Amino acid sequence: MRTITITSVPGYNEWRIASRECLAQSIPPENIIWQSSESIQDDLFGHTEEVMPAPKEQVKHSIPKSVLMLFKYALCHQDASRFALCYRVLWRVIFENKNLIQLKTDEDILQLNTLAKAVKRDAYKMSAFLRFREVALDGQEHFIAWYEPEHFSLEVKLDFFQTRFKNMRWSILTPYRAAHWDTEKLVLEDNPDPSVCPDEDRIEKYWLTYYTNIFNPARIKKSAMLSSMPKKYWKNMPETALIDDMIRNSDARARKMITDGNKR
Amino acid sequence: MHDKLIQKLEILSDAAKYDASCASGTAGKRKAGKTDKTGIGSLTGGTGICHSFTPDGRCVSLLKILMTNYCIYDCHYCINRVSSSVQRARFTVKETVELTLNFYKRNYIEGLFLSSGIVGSPDLTMESMVRIAKSLRIDHGFKGYIHLKTIPNASPELQAEAGLYADRLSINVEMPTQLSLNKYAPEKDLGAIHSSMNTLKDKIAEHKVDKTHTGKRPPRFAPGGQSTQMIIGADGSNDKVILGASVQLYSQQKLRRVYYSAFSPIPDASEVLPLKPAPLVREHRLYQADWLLRFYGFTLDEIVHDDMLDMDHDPKLAWALRNRHVFPIDLNKADKLMLLRVPGLGARTVQKILAIRRYTKLSWMDLTKMRLPLQKLKPFITVSDYSPAIHLLDGNNFELQFKQPKQFELFGA
What we know:
A: 8 helices; about 40% helix; B: 2 domains; two-stranded antiparallel ribbon; DUF4130 (chain A); DNA_repair_put (chain A); DNA polymerase bacteriophage-type (chain A); EC 2.7.7.7 (chain A); transferase (chain A)
C-alpha cells in the first residue's frame, strides 16, 4: 500500500507529479491511499512504503485534453476523495477504455463530472458575484475584493481576472488564499487578512440606485432569483441588502403603476 | 459625480426596465493586448456573465439605461412617449462613459446597453449614442460588451458607424404587423425598420469574412449581430402571427434573438392600451416555441396548431400529444432530429445520448443516472430494457397527467 500526501491546495500539480510516478510503477488505484495534509488519517493497514524506486523506463501515456481539463476542475473541489477518484479514472482511461469519459453513466465518470461541474459553477459565480471596492494605495487606485468560494475556485478564475482587469491594480482575498495583481505580476499569499478589505466604495450608491430601479415590481419572481443567486452568496454583495424591501414594496409599486395607468 | 446623477440614474434606469433583453449575447472573444497599458475589459467568448439577479428573476448583466427619456414620438405602449407626464432626464456623453467604466471596474457589469428616446431628431440622437460608444472604445480602450439600440430612421452612415463600436445592434419592431403599429406607434414604419435591419445585416456579413483581398482583417462590425423585441398582448395579434414575424426576422434579417415582452401596465398609460397585463405564461410559451423553431428543427405549422399556443403544455409536449403515432421512439436508434422531438429531452441531453450510444446501449438505469425527467419521458420512449405499456399513449386521460400544477419559471435571461 502506498500513501501519498498532498500538502497544498488545490493540489493539482502535486497530484499530477505523484500520479505520473505511480503510473510509471504501475501501481493500481486500489493500492494507493491519497490524503491531504489537513486531513491526515492513520493508515488502517499500518503499512507504508517509504522509498519510491525510480522508474526504469518512462512509458508515455497520452491522455485526451478533455480528460485533463475535467481533472483540472475536479481537483479544485474541496472533496478529499478527489485525488483518488482522478487517479482511478486516469488508470481506467489508460488500461481499460480510452473512451471511458464518454460513458456518462459510469459511476466514476458521473462522480468526476459532478465534481467538475460544481467547481465550474462555483468559479462562474465567483466571476459574477465578486465585488471590488476602491481604495487609494500609495496614491494609486487599487481595487480590493473579499470573496468566499465553496471550492478552490480562485485558481480557476485567475486568468479571467488578469485578462479582464489587466491594467487595474487589484487584490482578491479568499479565506485560503489571496491574489494580488499590479498590472504586470501576480503574487499569491496564503491565509490573507480579510480586514484590509474596505467597508465602502464611492460608486456603490450608484450601483444600488441602478439595482433598485432596473427591477420591474409588476413581475416578482423570487424563486427564479433565488435559484440563480442563492442566499449563500448574498453577504458579500451590497445590493442584496435591498432585496427584502424591494419585495415588500413591490405590490404597492405595481399597484401604483396600474392605478396611475387608470387615471383617464 | 454628485447626487444629481443619482436622480438621473433613477429616472433613466427605471425607464429602461421595460426592455426584456438583459443578457449580453455571444460576440466572440476580445481583450486588451500585451502592449495595451490603459485598456480595460474582455469578452470571454460565451454569453455574458450575470452579475446579479433582481427579485423579478432577471439577470443583471449590463448597465441598461436610456441616454434620455425625452421623446418626440408618441408610441402608446411606451412610458416615454411625448404625451406622457413622466419625469424627464438626460445623461451627458461623459456621464454615461464614466458610469459604465466605474461599474465595470467593480465587476458589477459586462458592459453597456444603451437605448434612448428621440430627442431633437433621429440623427442627433443616434449621433450622441455613437459618441458614447466611440469614447468608450477609442478614448478608454473598453473591451467589454456594448449593445446599442439603434434609432429607427437614423441615417445609414450613423448606423454603419454604430456597428464599428457596438457588439450588438437592435431595433425594436414592437408589433408584428404594420396594422398594429399604425394603431399603437403611429410614427413607426415596419418597412423602414426592416430596411434598416437589412442594411445592418449586409454590413455584418461584409465584415464577417476572415480577410479582404488586401489580406487585412476587416474591422469588427457588430459581431454579436442584431436583435429585436415584440410586445405581447398589447395588440390583438395571435401567437401564429407573432411567431411568423419571428421566423421571417430570423431567416431574412438573420437576427440573433427576438425578445418577447408581455405587456405590463405602465404608469400614465395611454387610452388605447388594455388595462390588464398579458399573462406571463404566454410570454414563456413564446420563448419555448421560439427555441423549438431555432434549435429543434420544428416548423411554424407544427408548433402552432391553432392560432394560439397551448397554455397548459409546453409546445413540444403539445406537439407530441397531437402526434402520438410517431411514439414511442427508440433512444438507441432514432436520429438526432427525432430525439430532439421527444418531450423531456433537451439539446444537451440529446448530445449526451448520441455520445453514449456510440459505445454502449442505453438502458433504463442510464436514464436514471442522467437524472432525466422519467415521468415525462416514460410514455414516449423505448430503451434496451424498457418499452412503454401501450395504454400509456392511448389512454383518454393521457394529457391530464402533464397538467402543470403551477406556472413555469420564466427564462432568466
